[in-house]
Amino acid sequence: AQKNLEGKTILITGASAGIGEAIAREFVDATGGNIKLVLAARRVRRLAELGQQLGQSGAQVHLASLDVSDGANIDEFFASLPSEFQDIDVLVNNAGKALGIEHAGSIRDEDVEEMFATNVLGLIKMTQTVIRGMKEKNSGDIVQLGSIAGIESYPGGSIYCATKSAVRSFTQAVRKELINTKIRVMEIDPGAVETEFSLVRFGGDPEKAKKVYEGYEPLSAKDIAEVVVFNCSRRQNVVVAESLVFPTAQA
Ligand code: NDP
Predict the structure, then answer these.
(1) Per its UniProt record, what InterPro entries does this chain match (predicted)?
(2) 198-235 residue pLDDT tens
């Protein structure tokens, strides 16, 4: 078991599917269940099954409804955390999405707003809120799910890519602001990972979603979760600041 992680409290946004769910499982595996998890997403029903499974390993799990695109809801979420889950050691800002693959002029205003509200404003407010507690105890890890899309823009991805490059800029600055503390700020930038990401992107159309992963083997959500847990379990003096993780065929 990973001694560095044992007994810690991990908060994961977007834990109801894909990479977030895999990260929750990986933290439990790495600690043999000696861990506290706050699993948050909008679809609490989907969290229930995961919470039950992870609870069987001995992990203490708190499930919470959270829409990170709604600032007031973020405040409510933190205000209603049970006392034993309030001292967050690791925040994983994983909730995020791409909507559509349209040229800039054709993207609907509401999709632009939802991508920025979720991927950027939500991640920023979650980070700001958690930093306050981490500063008081002078420890903690913040893990941001960026993307290769934040480094290399592609046609049809103008808004999504802009959100992820905003995540990267914000994250770099926060890392530097915290340089004299024991708070670590890390970013994971995946290439293609097979999750519900493409289903969400294409409005629930399974045919279009499947096409994204044709002709090569994408990463699994677990591949990313393993990197997150590895990075968080380094000794305190080591920060894996940014991890670019591709399927071999995509690199
Ligand atoms: P999924 O669509 O499989 O999962 C996304 C998760 O985010 C779900 O649990 C969803 O839960 C949650 N979520 C969406 N909107 C909100 C919201 N407003 N508030 C709270 N939770 C929300 O996608 P992935 O697991 O693939 O994506 C996870 C992260 O990884 C994202 O930030 C994505 O941009 C990034 N990424 C993904 C890549 C890929 O190829 N899959 C590549 C690079 C980066 P619910 O709907 O229940 O709220």
Answers:
(1) NAD(P)-bd_dom_sf (IPR036291), Sc_DH/Rdtase_CS (IPR020904), SDR_fam (IPR002347)
(2) 999 999 999 999 999 999 999 999 999 999 999 999 99
CA distance linking residue 95 with residue 192, whole number of Å: 16
Pocket test for ligand 1, best of 21, 44, 97 (most atoms within 8 A of CB): 97
Ligand 1 contact, 67 CB (< 6 A): yes
Amino acid letter, residue 165: S
Compute the CA torsion angle 221, 85, 120, 24 (nearest 10 deg): 0
What are the structural domains of the chain?
3-96+122-153+164-192+219-250 (3.40.50.720)
At residue 194, the 3 state secondary structure works out as coil
Counting atoms of ligand 1 from 1, which one is nearest the CA of 118?
18
pTM value is 0.98
